Amino acid sequence: MKKVLLTVLAALAVVSTGCGNDKSAKPTKPAGPNIAKLVQAATATQVKQKSVHMAVTTMVSTASQTTHADLDADFIMKPLQMRGTSQVTGQTQPKPVELYYDAKHSYLKVGDHWIDASKSMTAMANPAGFAGQLRGDQIKAIPQSALKQAKLKRTKATDTVTMGFTGKRAKAIWTQGQQAQAGAGSDSQLKQTSIKKLHYQLVIDRASQLPQQYQLRITVKRQGQTIDELITITYANWGKVTITTPDLK
Predict the structure, then answer these.
(1) Are 116 and 106 in contact (CB under 8 A)?
(2) DSSP states of 27-67 as a string?
């Protein structure tokens, strides 16, 4: 009996040793980068910048019409200034309009003259919303629950973060994001809206940790109509932009 016990123990020792040295066992993959921290670092770095060039494109599509609203402008953060062009296609404004904003008034250029258009400016571009975009509010509003499901694609130059949701999950993520932004859509509007798809993409420059591009695509159904909206913000020349104040006389 003693010999049998010793033989079993010896066999167990051999099996244990063999398992420990099994070269076929898959090695544990190291944990990847923390996506939430990458995004937080990008917005923290963005807030510190003094100027930037932003190209903002908004495309809204329904079954009957597609409208493009484009803004291509330079921005100074403090005090807030903007100078650039706006163009809306698919409506009644086929030509680009030159704009200037000095944090107190909004101007547009008509012929060779600048006119104060503070009351009507929001019809083409909303300067009040630019301050939030410059702070990265739209990026900060992406919920942590969404970032936990994000995918990351890395190159030597960039980190690209993507998240996609559908159905009830899309509406839950969108609602969290809207609640995080002051002055966002009302609860009544959200209740009347069925969110079908929601997609975020953020491209971050690895060297500077600054955003290169932010993109939001949302498909909703409201009052029986399906609406697809794509917003793309492309950033350039962080901290290198200067603005010449036009002759407003």
Answers:
(1) yes
(2) PPPPP---HHHHHHHHHHHHHT-SEEEEEEEEEEE-SS-EE
Rounded to a whole number of angstroms, the CA Rg of the chain reads 26
Which position has the higher pLDDT, 6 or 35? Answer: 35
Structure tokens at 178: 């809207």
Cα 107 from Cα 121, distance rounded (Å): 8
Rounded distance between C-alpha atoms, residue 117 and residue 64, angstroms: 31
How many residues are given for the chain?
249
CB 163, CB 152: distance < 8 Å: no
Burial 186-202 (b: 16+ CB within 10 A, else e): eeeebeebbbbebbbbb
Q: Among candidates 53, 134, 124, which has minimal Cα distance to 86?
A: 124
- Its sign, for the CA torsion 130, 133, 137, 138, is positive
Three-state secondary structure call for residue 123: helix
- pTM (two decimals): 0.80
Q: Return d(Cα 223, Cα 78) in angstroms, integer.
A: 41
Distance CA(134)–CA(242), nearest Å, equals 15
3-state secondary structure of 17: helix
Could you give the CA distance from residue 32 to residue 114 in angstroms, rounded to a whole number? 53
- Does the structure show a pLDDT above 50 at 245? yes
Rounded to 5, what percent of the chain is helix, strand, coil?
A: 30, 40, 35
Distance, C-alpha 206 to centroid of its chain:
16
Judged by DSSP in three states, 248 sits in coil
**Beta-ladder partners of 99:** 84, 108
